[in-house]
Specification:
The structure holds 2 protein chains of 2 kinds. Helices cover 31% and strands 24% of the residues of chain A. By secondary structure, chain A is of the alpha+beta class. Chain B has one domain: 3-Layer(aba) Sandwich (Rossmann fold). The chains are: A alpha+beta, B alpha/beta. Strand 5 of chain A pairs antiparallel with strand 4 (93-95) of chain B, so a sheet runs across the interface.
Chain lengths: 110, 211
């Protein structure tokens, strides 16, 4: 296992003779660096996109975003290019219009 | 106006109880290849003599949601009529290379990947119109996945009744207990949709929860 200097943090590979002599900083204390923990891969979505087209036929889908948003934003390969899925956006506008209409109706009644 | 909304929120469960529909619309959800369409076919074959759609070993065989209305289930003298929505498998990554292994051409595989991605969106949009969810999980697979946790969490947030189906118990390495341990807050019914194992228990649970 690699060793890490407790003072300066320099990492020496397993079996490095320098560990016996001490670190460059003069410190003689080291800690084992445990093997790299298996990282749970988080979704790599950082922006607004709900679907990312990595290349034709390869897609990454952000389920959380689709669950929480009405419109679908598709990120296309190159940085900064996005497409908005129109039917989902129209559906959202339709819903909003319906809500407004309903609200108007209820205020008229009042 | 505000007071009414507050009261509604506070007594949501009572409103739900009294405004229960005669016919519940139930969605079948889960990751790809968990056996959603096999289960939908089993339910329809048992109660209507019909089928919902084709099944396949190639993931994402169902890429459009399918609705079957008025399925009458009778258990212990109790009858419940439900509308069933069979949905495409939910996934966070869809890669056409996966389909090439099953002998699909590159063009077919890419089209399948595109349709499957659209299917995921369609499946999630359907949740707005549902009254309950049957979540189908493959009992031979690890249930602690991001997809499963996200789906269950969202269904809980929407307050939809959820019944988890631990499918494929006919396979030797199936572990429905692992699914129960992962989601202890929900009822889990172990079944084999393909072989029809324990299917009566599932019908009883459906009648109980969605009736």
């Amino acid at each position: 296992m690699p060793h890490k200097c407790t003072k300066c943090g320099k990492i020496y590979p397993d079996g490095d003779p320098k560990i016996l002599k001490g670190c460059e900083c003069g410190n003689t204390r080291f800690v084992y660096v445990p093997k790299k923990k298996r990282e749970t891969k988080k979704e790599e979505f950082s922006g607004v996109e709900t679907v990312k087209i990595i290349s034709p036929g390869m897609y990454e889908i952000n389920l959380e975003k689709i669950f929480s948003r009405d419109e679908i934003v598709i990120a296309i390969q190159e940085e900064g290019r996005y497409a908005i899925h129109l039917p989902s956006l129209i559906g959202k506008i339709g819903k909003r219009d319906k809500k407004l209409r309903d609200k108007k109706k209820s205020t008229k009644k009042d | 106006m505000g007071i009414i909304v507050k009261i509604k929120k506070k007594f949501k469960f009572l409103f739900k109880l009294f405004s229960r529909k005669d016919r519940m619309k139930i969605g079948i959800y889960g990751p790809p290849n968990a056996g959603k369409t096999t289960l939908a076919n089993r339910i329809l074959r048992d109660w209507t003599g019909d089928v919902m759609g084709s099944v396949s070993d190639v993931p994402h065989e169902t890429r459009r949601a399918r609705l079957r209305e008025g399925v009458k289930i009778e258990v212990d003298g109790k009858s419940v009529t439900i509308d069933i929505v069979d949905t495409p498998g939910l996934a966070t990554k869809i890669d056409f290379h996966e389909f090439l292994k099953f002998g699909l051409s590159e063009e077919e595989a890419k089209r399948r990947a595109k349709e499957a991605t659209e299917g995921v969106i369609e499946a999630i949009k359907w949740l707005d119109d549902l009254d309950g969810v049957l979540m189908v999980l493959d009992a031979t697979e690890d249930p602690y996945t991001q997809v499963n946790v996200t789906i269950v969490g969202n269904i809980e947030a929407r307050g939809l009744p959820l019944l988890i189906v631990a499918n494929k118990i006919d396979l030797p390495n199936a572990s429905p207990a692992r699914i129960k341990a992962a989601f202890p807050q929900h009822p889990v019914v172990p079944i084999s949709a393909l072989k029809g194992l324990n299917i009566d228990t599932l019908y009883r649970e459906i009648a109980e929860r969605f009736g």
